[in-house]
Amino acid sequence: MTNNTQYRSNTRRRRSRRKKHRSTASILLITVLIAAICVAGVFAAIYFSGLRYIRINTDTGGFIKFFGWVAEDNSPLKGKIYLSDGGTADVDMEIGSVVYSNGDIYEGELKNLLKHGSGIFKLKSGDIYSGHFIDDKITGNGHFIYSNGDEYEGPLVDGKREGDNGVYTWSDHAMYIGPFRDDMKHGKNGRYIWPDGSSYEGDYENDMKHGTGTYRFANGDVYTGDFQNDIRTGRGTYTWENGESYTGEFKNNKMNGWGVYTWPSGRTLEGLYEDGQFKRTEPDTGTGMMQP
To answer: Whole-structure pTM over 0.85, yes or no?
Structure first.
């Protein structure tokens, strides 16, 4: 009798333990299912709300990552962009605005989250550019206002002054009109006007007067001729305000070599000049003696 009672008691305990195991497993399974449904619900809510992550590869080999809201065609609308150089920005395609983490601000046309078309770019340095962009680069015709008061209007390539018919105005009101190359005055028929009224019109090379040109001084003097590295060197004619003139060779901004000095009366003096001074009328024969 006692043995039968003990057997039935053990059987009931085993059944109870099995029920508890099944109950625990069921709870865990239900918990996992609920969690999965919640996660799926969150992602579904995010998706249907228009939030997306998009990566765009650029033509220059870099990339732009976007996380934010998109339009119906899945194109970026408003959110944050992450640039391949490590920078970030807040973008709003509806108003064409990009606020960069370095303090720069752009307002204008965009293409694939890049500055493209017409816009205004306000740099942290204080410089302001308004004009054309191509693939995020300042390229095309535009207007730069620099923080130091200088201004430039004309063609640019990749942020540099490049092309014909550019106009650069300094804060002291000096002005250059003409061709540029690689951010420097370079080419034919450039014109520079100084605040005192003096001017130069002619050839430039690597930001210097080089080639032929005409320099008009504020006092009325005029030089027309050759320049080398910003200096009157070569052949030319210098005419003083009083009517006197010299035509001949120059070196280091002075009469140097054979030339003719002419007075308003018609009198002339032809000969050799050195360091701006007349030396002799006979050419040097190379023997150390003057020609008879």
So the answer is: no
